[in-house]
Known about the structure:
The longest helix has 10 residues, at 14-23. The protein is globular. It has a single domain (2-158), classed as Metallo-dependent phosphatases (Purple Acid Phosphatase, chain A, domain 2, 4-Layer Sandwich). It contains three helices and eleven strands; from the N terminus they run E-H-E-H-E-E-E-E-H-E-E-E-E-E. It is an alpha/beta fold. The protein is 18% helix and 33% strand.
Amino acid sequence: MRILVFSDTHTSIYGMFRTVHGEKPDAVFHLGDHDRDARRLAAQFPGLPLYMVAGNTDDPYDTPEELTPELCGYRLLLTHGNLYGVRANNQTALVKRARELQCSVVLFGHTHEPYARRLGEVWLFNPGHAGKEPIVTGKPTCGVLTLESTGLRWEIREL
Length: 159
């Protein structure tokens, strides 16, 4: 199963649309900042499974702050990351939450920087940012998560 992972789109939706159209993923994860962008993506690709969580600029009354889907034998934790202090470059709280929920993979955003690391039995992945607002530095990116019964792969792609 191939999943495109976006975060921090901040209303820059066309790179996300082009990538979904070109990649034809099995599902999409949107990790917040701006959940409205994820809703527009869902309207553009109505048959595509889309999982989205609220970021720190979103309204958690409309969108959950975390999800724990189980796909291809993996239990995943999707969160924006702001609730777990990821700006402090410390993933201890994320790993603790993953263990509480029995998740082996955590996908988060918020820092705008791509990240991949394994801490114990938990994989942590951040796709970077897919937005182009002035405070964002670096090129927009997304993640491609491939889940198979034999293992998983994570790639970062420029939009």
